[in-house]
Amino acid sequence: MATAVLALNAGSSSVKFALFHQDDAGQGGGTARRIASGELEGITTHPHFRAVDADGHVLVERTWPAPDPAAADSADGTDAHHGPVGSLIDWVTSHLGDVPLAGVGHRVVHGGPDFIQPVRITPDIVTRLEALTPFAPLHQPASLGPIRALATLRPDLAQVACFDTAFHHTMPAVATRLALPRAYGQRGVRRYGFHGLSYEYIASCLPDLAPRLAAGRTVVAHLGNGASLCALHGGRSVETTMGFSVLDGLVMGTRCGQIDPGVILYMLRAEGLDAAGIEDVLYRHSGLLGVSDASSDMRDLQERARGDAQAREALDLFAYRLVQQVGAMAAVLDGLDGLVFTAGIGEHDAAVRATACARLSWLGIRLDESANAAHAAVISTPDSAVEVRVIPTDEESMIRRHVADCLAGG
Ligand SMILES: Nc1ncnc2c1ncn2[C@@H]1O[C@H](COP(=O)(O)OP(=O)(O)O)[C@@H](O)[C@H]1O
Ligand SMILES: CC(=O)OP(=O)(O)O
Ligand SMILES: [Mg+2]
To answer: Where is the active site (predicted)?
Structure first.
């Protein structure tokens, strides 16, 4: 019997979603087709809901007035009955026709040391996920809001948490350690890695698309607003650039990436910033936005870079750190067979890919300029020692598969 699954991918101020119809779902997920997808944006400022069908035709578009900051639950959009999340569920329910909704899957950014695979959500699981909020102070509450709203609205509905950290549980112990006193590690202060649903999706595509990369040493560059790299060996994560938090590694839209912890001590001591102030600088005002002093958006910066030296400096730093850290991943892998670009920048920005590949030619990368400009699936030349690919990521499909597996008892 056909059933539907809703996948929710909550960010700090938006919820992306996809609605699937699936047949014969069981272990392995069966076959599925995406019937609608969209986004609920500006939840805390000016909520805007838009959904399109599989061909990109707009199915619904709606806006709400700015929420009242005094009303705690409506301010984060999770007021179950009246907020935007409630309206998203109403719309999904009305759009289902006769197909029953089998379950809802959520991207949950942090699974801590214990959640190494998707899990059916119960009140006890929600309590355990809440306890991980100090590890991901901006992302974890964003995932928990829709989970709580749905539990109130539709207590009958199966909900499954799918963790961004889980895919990295195959990293060797040495890659998870921080060189801090041992007691910190025992309290969960270690490297986890994120964007795992995206990497798991890409790894699942490789056996069909590129068997040599599936079996070999591949670096995947997930370059979106948040950005990270993952080193895959035989399709399993062995290293990644994000660590304890989503701040580490590459330069991001508004996050700093790798930083000397001495800077944080300086902010505390010399500038008198408190934890909230430092969090604001590192998560919301750094990265491309901080360096350019203009924009966190790659497209916007490419436009500005012609006449704006600060925008160029932000792009240069983004590329510099990208090249530096692909090199670090290749060192961990003892060489490189494949490089895959994905997410907003990775999939669409030929200039970023060209700059990175040119500076990585020492690894044997040869870029096919016209294939790159055309955003082709393979953008390296036939004689390139490293096969370079562009693969669109699909975290929502990965969530759908996990829901099907989980509900089938996997
Ligand atoms: N055609 C494009 N050229 C360059 N950058 C793009 C293009 N399309 C999207 N981007 C960039 O992708 C980034 C957002 O990536 P995305 O994966 O959508 O982010 P999120 O982390 O929110 O899912 C932005 O910096 C945006 O400018
Ligand atoms: C983990 C992370 O950084 O997520 P996003 O890219 O959605 O911000
Ligand atoms: Mg994303």
So the answer is: 164 (proton donor/acceptor)
| The CATH number of domain 3-163 is 3.60.10.10 | no
296-310 residues labelled b (16+ CB within 10 A) or e (exposed): bbbeebbebbeebee
The CB of 225 under 6 Å from ligand 2? The reply is yes
pLDDT at 75: 42
- pLDDT for 76 equals 47
Please state, in angstroms and rounded to a whole number, the distance separating the CA atoms of residues 265 and 353.
Answer: 35
pLDDT range class, residue 29, cuts 50, 70, 90: low
ipTM, two decimals, is: 0.97
For domain 210-390, give the CATH superfamily: ATPase, nucleotide binding domain (3.30.420.40)
| Type of residue numbered 82 | H
Where along the chain do the CATH 3.30.420.40 domains lie? Answer: 3-163, 210-390
Which are the catalytic amino acids?
A: 164
Ligand 1 contact, 344 CB (< 6 A):
yes
| Helix ranges, 218-308 (H) | 261-269, 275-284, 287-292, 298-304
Measured from the Cα of 9, ligand 2's closest atom is 7
For ligand 1, say whether the CB of 185 is within 6 Å of any of its atoms: no
Assigned token pair, 208: 């069909």
**pLDDT tens sequence across 112-150:** 999 999 999 999 999 999 999 999 988 999 999 999 989
Higher pLDDT, 161 or 29: 161
Q: Does residue 298 have its Cβ closer than 6 Å to ligand 1?
A: yes
Burial of 327 (0-12, 13-18, 19+ CB in 10 A): middle
Which pTM does this prediction carry? 0.94
Choice from 225, 341, 353 to test ligand 1 binding pocket (greatest atom count within 8 A of CB): 225
